[in-house]
Amino acid sequence: MGLIELTSMPPARDEQAISYNWYVGIDWGSQQHQVCVLDRDRHVVGERVVDHDGSSLAQLATWLWAVSAGQPQRVAVAIEVPRGAIVEGLIERGFHVFAINPKQLARFRDRHTMSGAKDDRRDAFVLADSLRTDQPSFRRLHLDEPQLLLLRELSRAEETLLEEFRRSANRLRDQLHRFYPQMLHLCSGADEAWLWDLIDLAPTPAHAALLSKEQIQRVLKAHRLRRVKATEVLACIQAPALPVAPGAAEAAQVHCAFLLPCLRVLAEQLRSCAQQGEALLKTLAEAPDETGGPSDVAVVQSLPGVGRKITAWLFAEAAQPLTERDYQVLRTQGGVAPVTKQSGKRRQVVMRRGCNPRLRHALYHMARVATQRDAYFGGVYEALRAKGQRHGQALRNIGDRLLRILIAMLHNRTCYDATRSRREPVVQMG
Predict the structure, then answer these.
(1) Which of 269, 284, 316 is the last residue of a domain?
(2) Are both 27 and 132 inside the same structural domain?
(3) pTM surpassing 0.85?
(4) Domain count, the chain
(5) What is the per-residue pLDDT for 11?
(6) Domain with 68 in it: what CATH number?
């Protein structure tokens, strides 16, 4: 990529130009939703409680349709959740839905009461009134493509499975540490399938003493493991056992016997999830853009530091701003846009805390890998460190720069070219 100029880019979709006649606040609940409708003059048009089921949500849409005299595009809906059945159902019927952060709602609530009082009716009114007075401050929601919805669920499912896998592996490690630390010398994380088979073969030090070299070789061969020698494994697990209380080894063995099947199931689910995500991303990457250029997925994957997981995270958590080419929203949601705090003569630039944690995580890893694999970004990192920035600051700066380049690439329908020179200045950021 050459010098990136964003001044020529068209602004994101302008939602501020739309004039609304009715404002709806929905205080979302797991079982019921409190709804309040205001007109442009702040008069309450109607209130009701809606159950969280298909028929009730359909009745809500019908009621709002009637209130607006069949003009859903003149109805602005404020709700705290950015997705879900109620959000998607209203958008599908033509209503304009805006997400309001719970922290924002708490501050808007202070406008109406200083006591901190909270109830569902009041919150629904506050949501509607806040949207009426501050609509430009909120971002309108749009439905994602079905494939992007699937990608989001696969990405989040993989993240959940990975957390469970690590938790179970840590439990296994703790049990081995109690009575069988020799096994941890072979695999400190206790998260490798060949180690689980070895534990099945020799669940206690007493069983290990009876093993032969050939038995261990069969385990290693089954897993195509060449970095580990059978003689070394045998010598390790047959080392003098840790003295434990009578029955402790047997009790820990029982615990391990429950954990091993769980780990195997989780490992298989992770493989399946990764394979499905890889296949979906390949399909999305190979689908040409309507202009004949590369797809958005192909453009994103061309960036240094972007692999399967990072691509999935980006589209799972930021599909809308990526589609709209909205650099400012991306950097804000990703936590790479610094926050300026100024009072009198004091001015401080600090790290942004309010952001999407998954997107922040993705940008951090993208920036980290980019500094390792791309000479330009490696040079930027060193320059920023030389200017006095800490490691995290430098990576946030690089993450921001990557987003800026990415938006330019998406706008121009071009992929990343590491051979082209860049003459962008290395700026100091928070």
Answers:
(1) 269
(2) yes
(3) no
(4) 3
(5) 39
(6) 3.30.420.40
214 and 321 share a domain?
no
The pLDDT, as a whole number, for residue 406 is 94
Domain encompassing residue 62? 22-140
pLDDT score for 116:
54
Supply the pLDDT for residue 241: 83
Contact 407, 361 (CB under 8 A): no
Residue spans of the chain under pLDDT 70: 1-17, 109-118, 342-345, 348-350, 420-430
Q: For the chain, what is the HEC assignment? A: CCCCCCCCCCCCCCCCCCCCCEEEEEECCCCEEEEEEEECCCCEEEEEEEECCHHHHHHHHHHHHHHCCCCHHHEEEEECCCCCHHHHHHHHCCCEEEECCHHHHHHHHHHHCCCCCCCHHHHHHHHHHHHHHHHHHCEECCCCCHHHHHHHHHHHHHHHHHHHHHHHHHHHHHHHHHHCCHHHHHCCCCCCHHHHHHHHHCCCHHHHCCCCHHHHHHHHHHCCCCCCCHHHHHHHHCCCCCCCCCCHHHHHHHHHHHHHHHHHHHHHHHHHHHHHHHHHHHHHHHCCCCCCCCCHHHHHHCCCCCCHHHHHHHHHHHHHHHHCCCHHHHHHHCCCCCEEEEECCEEEEECCCCCCHHHHHHHHHHHHHHHHHCHHHHHHHHHHHHCCCCHHHHHHHHHHHHHHHHHHHHHHCCCCCCCCCCCCCCCCCC
**Domain shared by 170 and 217, yes or no:** yes
Do the domain assignments include residue 126?
Answer: yes
Residue 128 located in a structural domain: yes
Give the model's pLDDT for residue 260: 96
The verdict on 215 and 303 lying in the same domain is no
Same domain, 174 and 219: yes
